[in-house]
Amino acid sequence: MIKLDDIDRKILFELDTNARQSIPQISRNVDFHKNAVRYRIKRLEKLGIIKNYYTVIDSHKLGYMVIKFYTKFQNTTSKIQREIINYFTLNKKTWVVCSIAGAFDLDVIFWVKSLDAFSSFWERTLERFGIYFKEQKLFFQMQEMSFKPSYLINTTKREDKEPYELSGGMSVHSLDQLDYQLLHLIASNARIPVIEMVKKLHISSNIVRYRLKKLRKSQVIQGFRTNIDITKLGYISIKADMFLNRYADRFQIINHLKSNPYVVCIMKSLGYSHLEIEFNIKNINHFYEIMKSLIDTFPNIINSYQYFSIIENHKLCWMPEE
């Protein structure tokens, strides 16, 4: 574990709040000299704490549906599991592929434009690998609330007015080829300078700024974030799938969890659990404490929950490849 001081933590928080902030902006926000801020960011990148900077793109607004797949393996060897993982990782429909521990062994998230196309793909997948899937959960993600890593600067309660990103819904925006080129360029490099985008796209800086502003205003771009390796800071990622006695009570759980600084994502889904909650926490005992407190607070609402921790990310694609 790498120990950081308060300034480092504030810098990480600022970068994850808006990765496109300039060094002078970050310097003002953390009240630290800009040359020292620049040095610290480079150090955090060199240490691997900052893996990269990415753009949060609302795939629903591009006309995609989000389908999730969990499975528990059976009849497999490590070689077969690797073949299955490679199959999903190389597929252009996949957004996330990761090995997990807990209720399931593999988590795959797809971007899908057509259920017919996905259906034929899934039939081929089951024909090839179905014998290795003991338990299968296939369901839709409808909405996602993404929060800042408040635990880096405040471990007690998230500020009520702290902004968060809200992806999902059925509204689709019409984009042209230049919009898509810009999104592909900035998706996995949120801090790419405007001048570099100008050179790659052969357009003026004014057009780049205008297009980015337009994509931001339409909420196709939800935000500019920082991919932080939380394991180097002594945290682990755990996701809980929650089942409620009454679906209508989900808003009480959401409003309660929004103030928890260790909650980084709340997702609404159809076809499996009622809510999916992602935590960045200190250890498994910390997770149990949070869930125990939650159940004690809402004993008649929460029926049960399952959870898993992420072992290894095999693919994390910030923009649909298709």
List keywords for this structure.
single chain, 322 residues, alpha+beta, Arc Repressor Mutant, subunit A, Alpha-Beta Plaits, 3 domains, eight-stranded antiparallel barrel, two-stranded antiparallel ribbon, 10 helices, 11 strands, 30% strand, globular
Question: How are the SSEs placed, and which strands pair?
Answer:
Blueprint: H1 6-17, H2 23-30, H3 34-46, E1 50-57, E2 65-73, H4 78-90, E3 94-102, E4 106-112, H5 115-129, E5 133-146, E6 165-168, H6 177-187, H7 194-201, H8 205-217, E7 221-228, E8 236-244, H9 250-257, E9 263-270, E10 275-281, H10 284-297, E11 302-316
Antiparallel strand pairs: 1-7, 2-4, 2-5, 3-4, 3-11, 5-6, 5-9, 8-10, 8-11, 9-10
Helix pairs in contact: 1-2, 2-3
Uncertain segments: none
- Helix/strand-derived class? alpha+beta
**Strand order of the biggest β-sheet:** 2-4-3-11-8-10-9-5
The first-to-last residue Cα distance is: 38 Å
CATH architecture of the largest domain: Orthogonal Bundle
Following the backbone from N to C, one meets helices and strands in this order, namely: HHHEEHEEHEEHHHEEHEEHE
What's the CATH topology name of the largest domain? Arc Repressor Mutant, subunit A
Rg, rounded, reads 20 Å
Can you give the mean pLDDT?
94
The biggest sheet amounts to: 8 strands, antiparallel, barrel
Q: Tell me what portion of residues adopts beta-strand conformation.
A: 25-35%
Number of separate helices = 10
